Amino acid sequence: MAVVNTPGKIEFQERSITGPSHDQVLIKTKAVSICGSDLHTFKGKHPFAQLPAAPGHELSGEVIEVGDGVGRIKVGDRVALEPVITCGQCAFCEKGTYNLCTNISFHHREGQGAFTPFFVANEKWLHTLPKNISFEEGALLEPLAVAVHAVQKSGVALGETVAIFGVGAIGLMILVLARLSGASDIITVDVQDFRLMTAREMGTSLALNNRGDRTVDEIIRRVGGLGVDVAFEAVGIQTTFVQSLQVLRKGGRAILVGLNPEPEVTLPSNIFVQKEISLSGSQGYCWDFQTALKLVETGSIDLSRFISHRVAFDSLQEGFEILTRPENQAIKVVVVFD
After folding, report:
1. What pTM, to 2 d.p., does this model score?
2. 212 pLDDT tier (thresholds 50, 70, 90)
């Protein structure tokens, strides 16, 4: 299993494979995609996963053994993992809003990273892949579910205008979903030209490089001087956090998706009163894998478009290094297993 003991270095740790317990399933890993939070872990900057830590949670694979209490999943099934661990007993779990579980955790935070040939998971958190979804696409269902949750939380409606700050994989998925939701004008912002080019290919109305100091003015001018209805922050830094508020029209909504490695940011507080805007966080997913699966199965979203690089498991170090160098023009790196 891959672990990060020191920033910037992938190491491998041998572990014994144990059979699945009563309600568990043993999976032979087929594909795992590298997430932005994995990259934070690789750099030693993840706010909730202190080193040493085991990265990886966007996993798909084939079921090779099931516990004696497993009924829905069968040996031979192709599955994608929803990598949450919840208590099932708190007030939020009882209401069905398990993403807000008071004791929520994830497999990689509990020491079982997904960059490993075999993975044990509870049957409850496995989703069967339809035949027309590949293992590589299955590994991207987790970030798609994150984007689905954010867009549904935003309430983007027909004809509304949208700004997206940060068009990595999740930002690009938000772009596609916002277009499917009926947004009329979608403006994307990033500092990497290749990402902005990809955003243009995926249907953005306007792609802006955020290196200058005119981004907010350009967005407001684009939408008639009033501002956008909805802004998504998918970077995780103070600059874009503030910009996502500044570009809103009065009564607009900002959705915070990016994970900020810094514990605190400074915001222009009066803007909330003056413009009566709202700011909401978007935590993971909650019954969103099902929607993500249906969107891919029906062809509404082609997840293969988001895969820019593929590496073998024993080249995992290279996979992370690809993401650290902008010149590689990486969107999503998928680790492929034999």
Report:
1. 0.96
2. confident
